[in-house]
Design the sequence.
């Protein structure tokens, strides 16, 4: 399997994205903003197709538009928190715009499928460097705001009383989520971002309530699911995004079942 350059690139790309997605996703689940993260992936699809229509790089178009979307969502603050209707409207509008851009640029249809469902086996060296840069930026920014982020996530009223700007922190965090989402789209696609961004984090929170071990476990689960999914895709010739999704769902169901058994016996 490792005799092929494209498989080596796939494992490196999957590892980079999975680590960032696991860590970022843990805080996304902790703050109850998973639907907002899903909406950002659709915003990224519109950005990628729009950039292709203008002759620009789809990756950077996706990153820029997703980043703007994340900052805008963060600026709305509490008005967007828990508002499924508003987020769903943004999600549908972004996907519709992406389809409109494809209508005017039909030559991009094959790459659009990769954006929707992911194509980790098609990652080249230039994309690897881009993903590495995005990943380092996300992790560095998340480390910088981690303490106030945890404080605001667990005790928002007390944090605001202590002078922490909830809106500014939300804007910074959702900007980080936007960058992580742009990386995830390269691996599992727009429609399956939940697989790496939410699945491992939710599983980790079922298994431990401690913050440090929970973040580490989410990153390790995402990494294992990504690498095992790529390996299974190689040996079965089935899509890697399918296998990653199956592994992510199975891990969550197993953790949820174990939690139920513990509560029943207790």
Sequence:
């Amino acid at each position: 399997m490792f005799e092929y350059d494209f498989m080596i690139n796939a494992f490196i790309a999957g590892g980079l994205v999975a680590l960032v997605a696991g860590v970022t996703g843990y805080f996304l689940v902790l703050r109850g903003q998973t639907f907002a993260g899903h909406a950002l992936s659709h915003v990224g699809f519109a950005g990628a197709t729009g950039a292709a229509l203008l002759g620009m790089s789809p990756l950077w178009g996706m990153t820029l538009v997703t980043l703007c979307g994340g900052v805008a969502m963060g600026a709305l603050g509490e008005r967007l928190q828990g508002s499924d209707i508003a987020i769903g409207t943004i999600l549908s509008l972004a996907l519709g715009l992406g389809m409109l851009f494809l209508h005017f640029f039909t030559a991009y249809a094959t790459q659009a499928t990769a954006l929707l469902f992911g194509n980790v086996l098609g990652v080249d060296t230039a994309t690897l460097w881009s993903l590495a840069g995005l990943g380092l930026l996300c992790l560095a920014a998340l480390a910088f705001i981690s303490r106030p982020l945890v404080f605001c996530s667990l005790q928002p009223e007390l944090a605001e009383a202590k002078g922490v700007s909830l809106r500014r922190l939300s804007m910074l965090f959702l900007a980080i989520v936007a960058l992580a989402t742009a990386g995830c789209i390269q691996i599992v696609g727009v429609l399956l971002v939940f697989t790496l961004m939410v699945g491992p984090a939710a599983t980790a929170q079922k298994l431990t309530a401690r913050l440090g071990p929970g973040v580490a476990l989410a990153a390790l689960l995402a990494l294992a699911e990504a690498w095992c999914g790529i390996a299974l895709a190689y040996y079965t010739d089935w899509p890697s995004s399918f296998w990653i999704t199956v592994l992510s769902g199975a891990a969550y169901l197993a953790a949820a079942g174990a939690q139920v058994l513990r509560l029943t016996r207790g």
Summary: The chain has a mean pLDDT of 83. The chain is about 85% helix and 0% strand. The chain has one domain: 5-191. The domain at 5-191 is CATH 1.10.3470.10 (ABC transporter involved in vitamin B12 uptake, BtuC).
